[in-house]
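Two proteins follow. First one:
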Amino acid sequence: MKYWGEDNSFIKGECEHCKRVLKISIGNTSREDNGFYLNTPIKCFCGSIHNQIKGFVQETKSAAQTRTNNDSNIRCPQCTSTQITAGNKGFGLGKAAAGSLLLGPLGLLGGFMGSKKIMITCLKCGNKWEAGKR
């Protein structure tokens, strides 16, 4: 696992296999010359088991602040990519069809229900989710 950063109670490490950033409690670590040793190994979401965080480097406050600002990027919950886009949900054909069966031509307006919701789409894997739901 590569060193990613730390705060008051956690050390962050990036899995070398899936690039996911994991938080490890400082109480589960021992500091070494080139990183941290994990007292209890952890298992990543991809199945990799880690017992060490390598590449610890003393940072200046400005470098740590820059890294912290970059860490707040929105990521796809499925593939962790930062290549995402957002847009309105749009007209729902299924809702319009159901509404027209129940209410006739006036029921077609049911297709606009929920059309103002913002949907986020991952450009890498195509996963879609509603903004604020994950």
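Second one, unrelated to the first:
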Amino acid sequence: MQDETVEIRWHGRGGQGAITAAKIFAQAAFHSGFPGVLMAPSFGTERRGAPVEVSLKISRAGINDLCPIEHPDVVVVLDDSILDEVNVVAGIKPDGILVINTPRGRGVYGGNHVRMATADVTHLAEKAGLKRGIVNTGIIGALAKALPIVPLPALLEAIKAEFNGKKGAENAEAARLAHANTTTE
């Protein structure tokens, strides 16, 4: 995945910050040598708690394909309860990566055709000093562990810049803790 376009689809709920997480990861990727970055959110009713999907494409070259992601390399899930409502792995490429915020590990997802990365991001973000339910920066750390194409220091800097004066250190710590505590299979 290092030299081609990497397609990442994010699933969360309105208010969890999936769009902000994708934006931060995109900025860090851009500053880490991926000049091709394309992000597009997709959501139905704009209300807190409603399912939200974000497409993010990153590439070391330009991106000419502006179509929605149908066959992601990576799927990021900010809230494991969404697994009961949305088929998050729909279209995932063979040997794709599924990153999930869950305290239950691989047991939360019974499929065998994906590589898994799990972390209890909710708990780790609280441990970092964030309010319960603020999981977007933590999930970025889990993604960086599962897909090590953007260095963790670059992500931490992008997080601090995004949340400058608004708990930037705590948000960066949530990402660092999630990175350190993500289990990959």
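SUMMARY FIELD: The first helix runs from residue 18 to 31. The chain has a mean pLDDT of 89.
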